[in-house]
Amino acid sequence: MTKPAPSITKEALLILLREYPVSKIETVEWLDWKRLPLFSRFDDAASLIQLGDQLLEEATQQTTAADYLRQFLPQLATELSCQWCTLIERKPEWETIFEFGRNSAASFPTNLCNEALDRDAAGLGADEKKADWFYIAAPLGDVRPGTVLLVGGRDLTSEALSNAVVAARVLGYALSIVEKREKHVKRIGRLETTLHIASSFSSARDTQSLLELIAKEATRLLVSERSSIFIWDQEHKQVVACPALGVEGNTLRLPDDVGIVGEVIHSGKTVTVDDAYNDDRFDPSVDKSSGFRTRNLLCVPLRNNAGELIGAFEVMNKQAGKSDFDDDDAQSLEELGVQAATALENTRELEQLSRSRDQLTEQAKQKVRIIGKSSAIDALRSTIERLASTDLPVLILGESGTGKEVVSQSLHYQGPRANTPFIAVNCAALTETLLESELFGHEKGAFTDAHETRIGKFELAEGGTLFLDEIGDMSLGGQAKLLRVLEQKVITRVGGSESIPINVRVVAATNAKLADAVRDKKFREDLFYRLSVVTLELPPLRERPEDVILLAEFFLTQFCGQANRRVLKMSAEAKKRLQAHLWPGNVRELRNLMERVAFLCAGDRVEVEDLAFILSPSRDSVVDMSSDLSLKEATRLFQQEYIRRTIKRVGGNMSETAKCLGLHRSNLYRKMGQLEMQEASDMSEEDDD
């Protein structure tokens, strides 16, 4: 016997339904725009909705108001069953914005259009002269105040008024959307053009060419015939027109309180003039100077980055077929003016820097002069002239004080790198640990004391010349690093990984005999050949006694200027005393001597006594007193050297030499023979010739 199924109470059933609800199928109805019941039957309401839909749809597709009206007015004329359709605006006279069809009436319904605007309502009226022709005038509303949709035809009735009211209102909103889009597109286009123009300003390297470029681009941007920038010279209360086309010198100066430019400068406000010669503010003197006739113009204040007014920016004569200058033109010209003012400031600063650089370069050139008339110095000057225009590495050899750095500067300032840096490094003052950082630079944190990034001498000399003095004292490790840079023409800062290309001419100098150092393995042979593509050997001052007085007078003039005193003259005895000295310190010693004389000499003339406390007789010995020589040998060497120096001093004239030495010429030859001087036989042969 089966058991009956357990019964479920009502309360339990409700709980089950809440826990496990039964799904139900929902019915959804869909309706798209084109299936509206309104569109299923032909009536006026449906027609109006469709007309408004078309007006708005067309507004999303056209980019200019002219294109929009050209596309839609024919459809509107068809919808309103009219033969003629136009959009007009009161300014205060009625002007046609766009027209479609043919107006067969004999007159224009001025009163009807005026009343439609006054009432803000559409009106229907018959033509006064043609009984079968009617007009409907419907204002476009607040979005286009003063604008009326005017239609005309033979079959127009009061029933068409409602359609015209809706069409005009929707047209007003749609047209405003198109015009705003057109304005924004035009604005974006002008901004892009302004930015493009501004980027071209960097190509101008001087103020005059920049001003001409600005004027040309402003004329193109504002579709005008001419433009000018007026720079305000407040000190002289003038404005300078640049460029002033048609004026001699291309520049015109005017009082800063005259004309429209004067008003803009003093008020700081933009001025637009539609008819220049009927405006009392217009100054026709500029036209008279240039032969140009101004019809209309736009003038805006010109301000710098700090907002300070520095002049005015003016464009003249909107090109034929274009409307007068408007607010968009003013805004565009003001924006271009900001870029122009910035470019002008930058260019002026660049010109000032260029002038300062040229002046400094010229001053450096004047200071770097190789003084002398000896054959060795003439040959040296000639060689420098030939080498200056090249990038060949040069090794300068010579004793300390012979002017190795002056020669290296001459190579720099006489060549195409004259306006670029000249950087000198004393290699003897750098330890191997400092050398790499000094020459190549280092990154922040590269070593304990590297608190910031520092560029090295090679980067400082970029484009110019790096002078490595006392190269013979550089360590072998430093030589290897230098050789790598010279071969690869790239450097890497200490602690960095970036390879930095360099364009530097290297000139090295030393007072050591590098050939001997190479042989003794103290200087790398490969670096020696890399540096010594061309070698210049500087003669010591004792071998060019004819240059001593020239150098002394040059230094004396220079230091007298620094001491703010008249240039001192040297007595004949003082000159002889200078020439008799051996100058173990070479040109540097002579320079230091003249500096002290210029500041310490008590009289207006340099006498031999003024040199005595500096040039003591004990320092003038030709013979090295440390040598183990007998008195006879020392005397012989002294006489040889003294005769040689005298011969050089008088330019090889033996008669003059004998006179200076207090001897007869034949006795001089005899003495030179006794001293075993080779010059005696050479001079005799020349005399025989």
UniProtKB/TrEMBL annotation:
<keyword id="KW-0175">Coiled coil</keyword>
<dbReference type="InterPro" id="IPR029016">
    <property type="entry name" value="GAF-like_dom_sf"/>
</dbReference>
<keyword id="KW-0238">DNA-binding</keyword>
<keyword id="KW-0067">ATP-binding</keyword>
<dbReference type="InterPro" id="IPR025944">
    <property type="entry name" value="Sigma_54_int_dom_CS"/>
</dbReference>
<feature type="coiled-coil region">
    <location>
        <begin position="343"/>
        <end position="370"/>
    </location>
</feature>
<dbReference type="InterPro" id="IPR025662">
    <property type="entry name" value="Sigma_54_int_dom_ATP-bd_1"/>
</dbReference>
<dbReference type="GO" id="GO:0005524">
    <property type="term" value="F:ATP binding"/>
</dbReference>
<dbReference type="InterPro" id="IPR003018">
    <property type="entry name" value="GAF"/>
</dbReference>
<dbReference type="InterPro" id="IPR027417">
    <property type="entry name" value="P-loop_NTPase"/>
</dbReference>
<dbReference type="Pfam" id="PF00158">
    <property type="entry name" value="Sigma54_activat"/>
</dbReference>
<keyword id="KW-0547">Nucleotide-binding</keyword>
<dbReference type="Pfam" id="PF01590">
    <property type="entry name" value="GAF"/>
</dbReference>
<dbReference type="InterPro" id="IPR003593">
    <property type="entry name" value="AAA+_ATPase"/>
</dbReference>
<protein>
    <submittedName>
        <fullName>Sigma-54-dependent Fis family transcriptional regulator</fullName>
    </submittedName>
</protein>
<dbReference type="InterPro" id="IPR058031">
    <property type="entry name" value="AAA_lid_NorR"/>
</dbReference>
<keyword id="KW-0804">Transcription</keyword>
<dbReference type="InterPro" id="IPR002197">
    <property type="entry name" value="HTH_Fis"/>
</dbReference>
<dbReference type="Pfam" id="PF25601">
    <property type="entry name" value="AAA_lid_14"/>
</dbReference>
<feature type="domain" description="Sigma-54 factor interaction">
    <location>
        <begin position="370"/>
        <end position="599"/>
    </location>
</feature>
<dbReference type="InterPro" id="IPR009057">
    <property type="entry name" value="Homeodomain-like_sf"/>
</dbReference>
<dbReference type="InterPro" id="IPR025943">
    <property type="entry name" value="Sigma_54_int_dom_ATP-bd_2"/>
</dbReference>
<keyword id="KW-0805">Transcription regulation</keyword>
<dbReference type="Pfam" id="PF02954">
    <property type="entry name" value="HTH_8"/>
</dbReference>
<dbReference type="InterPro" id="IPR002078">
    <property type="entry name" value="Sigma_54_int"/>
</dbReference>
<dbReference type="GO" id="GO:0006355">
    <property type="term" value="P:regulation of DNA-templated transcription"/>
</dbReference>
<dbReference type="GO" id="GO:0043565">
    <property type="term" value="F:sequence-specific DNA binding"/>
</dbReference>
